[in-house]
Amino acid sequence: MTKATAIAGVAVLVLAAAGCGKNSDGGDGDTKAGSKDNCVKADPDKKVGMAFDVGGRGDQSFNDSAAKGLDKAACELGLTVQTAEAQDGEPESAREGRLQQLVDAGFDPVIAVGFAYSPSLAKVAKANPDVKFAIVDDAVEGKNITNLLFAEEQGSFLVGAAAALKSESKNIGFVGGVETPLIKKFEAGYEAGAKAVDKSIKVQARYLSQPPDFSGFGDPAKGKTTAEGMLDAGADVIYHAAGGSGGGVFEAASAAGKKAIGVDSDQALTADKSVRDTILTSMLKNIDVAVYDYLESVEKGDSTGGPIVYDLKDGGVGYSTTGGQVDDIKEKLDGYKQQIIDGEITVPTK
């Protein structure tokens, strides 16, 4: 690690209040674990580090879901927490430096949120074999690495079915943040679910950036213009898997009087209040559950590393019903869900 890289890592570290950190809405919080009646007092010897992807806390989606699990574990297990956040357009050395700085500060385990950390996590974990690591959304090999994975295609199938059942134009859209194998799983499941309802339905798909450019996860303006193009081309329901860029998709759909589908979190609860009514449903990816389960296993000494996959059967993915906009089709969606769980439907990942 060069001195410049180390300094870069320090520059982007964000010290979260011990135990609870920032509020889930992205605002700064100074509440420490133990200050709430239901929180265990923070133990300075139980130090957990988390490195967020682009957008960080306050993205109302992917990172916030991970933060929710971290905050719950901090409160219930009495953990001292420090977080750091990736910056748009940063070099790989910055991600590596960020993880190493958390290690150097004595944080163990260290959780990386997002597949973009894969190369740097592999290096840092190998260089620090006595430290426990976890990564969300990718399978990185290492005896001291736990991979928190999800069957995104299964949850996406259900919201794809919802989109097709609700679409009046028989034309729907998908906006992906960055065109990677992971985000292609969302698209594949979404299209399969829609086609299960109506084989003739049109599915438009667009991506906001290409790797190694990960700005597509934090560019609401681009998300908005991309969604506007789909709406102009006849789409009346648009699903996004684009992190913070999804806010722009919601704005476009709201302005056009059409519907949108959220991702990762129940975005009818987390998105800006001005656009919540346009959110038909959200594909729930319970990263918070995975993060909490992992930290609890570390606390109990049961963490063994390797892949852990969360799917429909164990509640790792699903769909939201907030707002009641899918209540009339819930029976059909739950029917598809059971068929997937029973193996009667195999959802594609490509």
From TrEMBL:
Record has S-adenosyl-L-methionine as a keyword: no
Major localization listed first in the record, in broad terms: membrane
One Pfam assignment: Bmp
Compartment(s) of residence: Cell membrane
Keyword annotations of the record: Cell membrane, Lipoprotein, Membrane, Signal
Record's bilayer topology term: Lipid-anchor
Alphabetized CDD domains for the sequence: PBP1_PrnA-like (cd06354)
Cell membrane found in the keyword field: yes
CC annotations in GO: plasma membrane
Stored InterPro entries: BMP_lipoprotein, Peripla_BP_I, PnrA-like
PANTHER family in the cross-refs: ABC TRANSPORTER GUANOSINE-BINDING PROTEIN NUPN (PTHR34296:SF2), TRANSCRIPTIONAL ACTIVATOR PROTEIN MED (PTHR34296)
Family named by the database record: Belongs to the BMP lipoprotein family.
Protein name as it appears in the record: BMP family ABC transporter substrate-binding protein
Gene source species: Aeromicrobium chenweiae
